[in-house]
Amino acid sequence: MTHTIDVQNVTKRYGQKTAVDDMSFEVKRGEIFGMLGPNGAGKTTTIRMILDIIKPDSGTIRVFGAPFSEATKQRIGYLPEERGLYKNVPLIELLGYLGTLKGMKRREAEQRAAQLLEELDLGAYKKGKVRELSRGMSQKVQFAATILHRPELLIIDEPFAGLDPVNTEIIKNMIFRLRSEGATVVMSIHEMHQVEEMADRLLMIHQGRRVLYGAVDEVRQRYAEKAVIVSGQGDWAALRGVVRVQPDENGRNVTLYLDEQTTPEQIMAALANNPSYSVRSFALAVPRLNDIFIRVAGGEAKIAASAFNLAEVRRESA
Amino acid sequence: MSLHKTWLIARREFWFNLRRRSFLASMFLFPIFFVGVFVVGSLLGRSAATDISAYSAVGIVDESGIVVRADGTPYLAELPEPFRLYSAEAEARRAIEAGDLDGYYVLRADFLKTLKPEAYYRRDKIFGEALTRHLLNKVLTPSVAAQVGNPDLVARLGNPLRQIKLYRVGNPQELPREALFAAVFAPILVGSLVFTMTMNVSQFLMLGLADEKENRMMELFITSARPSEMLWGKFIGLGALGLLQIVVWIAIGIAFAATQGTDLLGTLATFQLDVGFLLVVATYAMLGYTLYGAIMAAIGASVNADQEARQVAGVIGLISVLPLIFLVSFFAAPNDGIALVLSLLPFTSPNGMPLRMAVTSVPSEQVALGIGLQVVTIIGVMWLSAKIFRLGMLNYGKRLSLREIWRALREGRQQIISARGAEEAL
Fold it and tell me: Could you report the predicted ipTM of this complex, rounded to two decimals?
């Protein structure tokens, strides 16, 4: 099956600086794909190359199984990071116009725009202008403009930037709904918890290179430490196979680091069979993406990253 | 290039800008201003030229023998109001002192040589041109006519050129006298209309792009249409708007002329306007719009806010208006020096060539050369504009420096620099 997006060995340089370095990844049909990375990592450049706004120096990019063409544009909805709208045009007229540029009939575009504005709680502003809206509201209008023509592929750059929790939830639900209707979604984002919650697979970029790539759960498992997190009462250090005990800051949970031979299941069995322990919760110590992100890409993680041996990480995920 | 998208963009630009307050203002206020100036001017002129009601009694002392015979009787049976005859200056002066006269004219013995009547008047009753003309038309000319005995001959002597008949070479129909004036005046008028229209709509093009750039809409558009579709759409839409503006101005002109009792079209028809000349004017207008439009598009895409765009556009506007600034040179020496250069230089020829053609007959190879230079320049400017446009439209929040433009052109690449620094956009 052809992938919705297929990026192979793409490199882009600006003068001396390599913005994107030998990047390869695929986006599968119908998935939510998260692109992660700190500012300046190369996410926006990658997106702009996918959308044929700028050309790569080398490598190939295929969208819907073919090189980018004018016809491809009709099938894509793009919400750029740097975004805005005409300030002095009534919303319905503005969206109607943008819809026609994506191949819709004027009337159809305006009907769909009216419906979307209702869903986004902006029904009352149909005839209003962007300059009359708050920042969050105009963000929602921009989102409406992106999905107006029911794109098969949605590429959204920082979709939640500047949104309050209520509006974040509204947009999030819409993204899920679009996915359930068959759309493929690529999100460039730096809020890790959103990726954890929403994305099926992820790509982490650091200094133009791919440092993490794969299914979200699988990536988290890969970075899982040999440890369990428990809460309750008992002498944790006395357990067989526990090499270190690390209480968390508020003292509620304790992380138990295990030796090479001991599995979490064995610890669980030991706790269950020993009445001197009372256990309220037991979980695998799977790291948050945030922690992985900091380990791989964060400031302090430059040292950690070299310890990780990036080359190895890349080979592993390939 | 998709014609459909170009059409969609053209239509949008047309309707959106048509509703702009600044466009409506220029479309309607501009002619209203002109009409206003005309009306006020002609009212003032008329009253100043004909109103002599302020004078109750004006004396004439004739020492030249034009108005009165040697025996003291006037040639005219009845002297028109408010004139009174006095046989001597002293008598007239006494009448002023008595309050019977506002003042008096003296026609000295050598009047036929000087043709200057001397005027003496009260401080509060200044003798204006209207009164002097009244004296000439109602007293002096009829008196001379009475002496000659043939009013026609007098009229002809008074203005010998009035009887001349004008013909355009190759056309047997007589040309009205006003056509001569129109032939010079029309290109200036048309030139300034075309200039105003070109500057007006190409500024809309520029401001539209600056607006889209300022509002960060470019990426949205280039993932919907090609840059060429965007540019041509804007060009065509705004060009149509410019045409509409001209049509409205002409319609207002015709309507206003009709209220003044003039059938403007009918009059123009008798002027035997040169179709070839009109075609050249139209061609230059179109080329001028394309050239300035392309320049304005590049400016719009390379600045950061429309305020900046306006400043740069102001300078560009000055260049195009040079032929009007050097108008005198066009009349004085239409075939050399400044006029020749300005009629050939691509940036000034849209105004310069029609102007020159109005006052002299320009060799057709020069007309062709001017058009050729225009076309070559347009191709070059279009190419450059498209580069700058592509480069500028993604560089949000930032004005392109000449150095960046030059470097990008030389290296043939697009550098993306974001408002928050190069790092982030990379």
Answer: 0.76
